[in-house]
Structures are given as structure tokens and as C-alpha cells.
Specification:
Strand order of the largest sheet: 1-4
Shape: globular
CATH class: Alpha Beta
Oligomer: single chain
Helix content: 10-25%
């Protein structure tokens, strides 16, 4: 799984960084960014849940095909 933040629509509410500080952080402009695009396997559910909480749907989760 990969995750990205669309900073063009991020409002900087900091919800993602508060819920998943190991996955998301705020940059110098006050917008969310991922710490690592590749999500560790044991954090995939957390990442999906965090994306679902984004009030402007700025977090993009990309599922990867296995195989």
C-alpha cells in the first residue's frame, strides 16, 4: 500500500498527524505530508482509517496488487 497527501486540498487540520503520528506529519507550511509513501504492512488498517477521517479527503491510499 502507498499513501499520499494532496496538499492542494489539505486544510492543515492536523487530524491525521494526531491519529497516526508514525505515518503523517505537518510540514513547514502547515500542511500534512506522509513520513514514508510506502505503508508498513502492520499499519495498513490504521492508514485506511486515518484517510477516512480526513474532512477534505486529501489522503489518497493506493492499494497494490500482490503478485
Amino acid at each position: 500500500m502507498k499513501v499520499r497527501v494532496d496538499q492542494s486540498i489539505c486544510t492543515g487540520c492536523e487530524l491525521c498527524a494526531a491519529i497516526s503520528p508514525d505515518l503523517f506529519e505537518m510540514n513547514g507550511e502547515g500542511l500534512s505530508q506522509v513520513k514514508s509513501e510506502a505503508v508498513p504492512e502492520d499499519r495498513t488498517e490504521e492508514c485506511r482509517d486515518t484517510a477516512d477521517t480526513c474532512p477534505v479527503e486529501a489522503i489518497r491510499v493506493e492499494e497494490q496488487d500482490e503478485g
